[in-house]
Amino acid sequence: MNVEISLEKDLSLIRKNKPLILHLVNYVAMNDCANVTLALHASPIMTSYEDEIKEIVSKSDSLYINIGTPTRRIIDVIKQACKVANENKKPIILDPVGVGATKARTSFVHYLLKNYEIDVLKGNYGEICSVAGLNNAMKGVDSLEINEKIVLRSCKEIAREYSICVVATGEKDFVVDKNENAYVVLNGHEMLSMLTGSGCMLGSVIACFLTTQKPLNACLEGLVVFNVSAEIAAKHANGLGSFKVRLLDEISNVDTEQIKKLARIKVCQF
Known about the structure:
- This protein is α/β, with parallel strands linked by helices.
- It is about 50% helix and about 15% strand.
- The strands form 2 sheets. Strands 2-1-3-4-5-8-9-10-11 form a 9-stranded mixed β-sheet, with helices on both faces. The protein has a two-stranded antiparallel sheet with strand order 6-7.
- α2 (about 30-40) packs parallel to α10.
- The longest helix is centred in the C-terminal third of the chain and has 22 residues, at about 215-235.
- The relative contact order is 0.15.
């Protein structure tokens, strides 16, 4: 591992403090997001009730926004939540699910990035490239095949424009911050791509680490915990169902020494 991350300390802080992670996420993956947050010993809360969102955001330790199943009401709630989070200096991670697939989603994501201080933007290759202005990178909510150099350049452009940390997930996972620090995480398993909501679960994991670390380190820690756990889980799984269960098991019983031993993080060059 070519970068120092304080994984043991940060996991201990999460387990000790049990941070409250507010999820404004799509209903397809909501249950999985709650479970993976609990596996890390943090506390998930899921609400989109307008009358309580200000109070809940102010009490939360981080805010995870996932636009997978938007409605006009949810969009208004997300805007309100971002405003309150900024006022209370709560970290925000944004997952722009399906951005680029429709003009409405793309417009909304750019609105959030331009009007609020978002700490982390996390999406698949197609989503990240779409945010950067590359057309035809998405088919529905799925990413089309894209050159990795284009992905990395897109990460750099977004990070610089919005002063944000960008995570692009795919066969390799890239992390780039506003200072042009760039890393690639080579861990993971192909079964993650078959599991609906796996990217959403990763967002929850990063949201937990955002309560203990600056965005760059939070993203790297979240990625290695999630991806190495997936590698271990796949070795003992008989299929997709048992893989999902074993993934949650591995995350809830994280062995930090094993994670550090197996983690493959390298510096990227633009």
